[in-house]
Design a protein that fits this description.
Layout: H1 18-25, E1 31-34, E2 40-41, E3 56-59, E4 65-74, E5 88-95, E6 104-107, E7 122-131, E8 134-141
Antiparallel strand pairs: 1-2, 1-3, 4-5, 4-7, 5-6, 7-8
């Protein structure tokens, strides 16, 4: 269960995505990268969308920053357990430093209100523990 979003169930892991969640629990932001063509991709996948290679690894050399590409404020919770948290946001963050195309991650932006969450808001990654050895990469406004 998420510490900042109590009631949110932990992510379902698989051999393809488990490294994303486990690295976050260690305070590391990683994105999957194709070992053949070098393209970053998210969500994690077994096959590269660019060259169809099945060889990949986790790249932790990214700066852990980005910009809000899109967002929505949720006023009717997706699951009943989140009812006490409304309104909460779901944001799409465009990750800085990726290769091979734009990489966008769906998550939350914490420490913002209805008026301060805006398109192009610079954000930095943070981590929200959500289960045994797992964490959710989330975002906070970048301090100037």
């Amino acid at each position: 269960m998420s510490e900042r979003l109590p009631g949110l169930p932990p992510p379902e892991t698989s051999p393809v995505n488990e490294g994303y969640w486990r690295s976050a629990a260690e305070g590391k932001f990683v994105i999957q990268r194709c070992d053949a063509c070098g393209a970053h991709r998210h969500p994690p996948a077994a096959v590269c969308f660019n060259c169809l290679s099945t060889r990949w690894s986790w790249d932790g050399a990214l700066p852990g920053t980005g910009r809000v590409f899109s967002y929505i404020w949720v006023h009717r919770p997706a699951i009943p357990a989140l009812a006490t948290l409304v309104p909460y946001n779901v944001a799409i963050v465009e990750v800085d430093g990726t290769v091979g195309g734009v990489v966008r991650v769906a998550s939350n932006v914490f420490d913002v209100d209805l008026d301060s969450l805006v398109i192009e808001l610079p954000v930095s990654v943070t981590f929200d523990p959500c289960g045994e050895g797992l964490a959710l990469p989330a975002w906070v406004p970048t301090k100037s």
